[in-house]
């Protein structure tokens, strides 16, 4: 078990979230996602990130239930999808997620994307879910600062997290700075850039220097920047690799070199193009 996986960050409402988790985007429901989650939990992961859109909440819930680990020791995130947004629609979607997960509550519920004309009513539903103690924290995903500004005009609860595409070639400096200034935690999805540039000379050089893999260099960069990260893998050896980042430290100079890889290389959808 990797002890570093119990390292947590305190959110703005006092809830603690493990800084490294397992993402399960595009992991097939049933045996595939079940085995991936069971494997991660056996290694010591205590943070699992799913979404209604992933269509694997049922397998995630079963794996957690069968693990024998007390529910309150595992941090579970799910999200409301775009065509489920709106006030009543979100409340209904959340109940469907709870049913599929076979849980009484989730630890974090997110607005998956800032759907124009919808996300403020969706957020109002999340506030109700939070007040009803069915989610220990609520947040957003893929929000630019202007979305957050707009949301907060009417919100009574500040988002605890903004989960965004974030990796060295899309360093999201503006979003990170905004969230830091407003005490909103940043969480990275696709943290290793879908493995599309792990052969970059700078990452290769640093991997050799620290005797780590390029993916470990990136995840450590996230960690030292205070960013929560949820790398996806169904492979136990890769899950081990992603967790094994607590026994070294990148120098300030090397952190800057990684940051300098930023070139706006967005691999997913731009939230302004929805």
From TrEMBL:
Domain annotation NADP-dependent oxidoreductase: ranges: 20-262
Top-level EC class: oxidoreductase
Binding site for substrate: 112
SUPFAM superfamilies: NAD(P)-linked oxidoreductase
Regions annotated as coiled coil: none
Active site feature: 54
Domain of life: Bacteria
Enzyme Commission number(s) from the entry: 1.1.1.283
InterPro entries, per database record: AKR (IPR020471), AKR5G (IPR044500), Aldo/ket_reductase_CS (IPR018170), NAD(P)_OxRdtase_dom_sf (IPR036812), NADP_OxRdtase_dom (IPR023210)
Keyword Phosphoprotein included in the entry's annotation: no
Gene Ontology MF terms: methylglyoxal reductase (NADPH) activity
UniProt-annotated site: Lowers pKa of active site Tyr, residues: 79
Key words of the record: NADP, Oxidoreductase
Entry's family note: Belongs to the aldo/keto reductase family.
Stored PANTHER family: 2,5-DIKETO-D-GLUCONIC ACID REDUCTASE, NADP-DEPENDENT OXIDOREDUCTASE DOMAIN-CONTAINING PROTEIN
Protein name, entry field: Glyoxal reductase
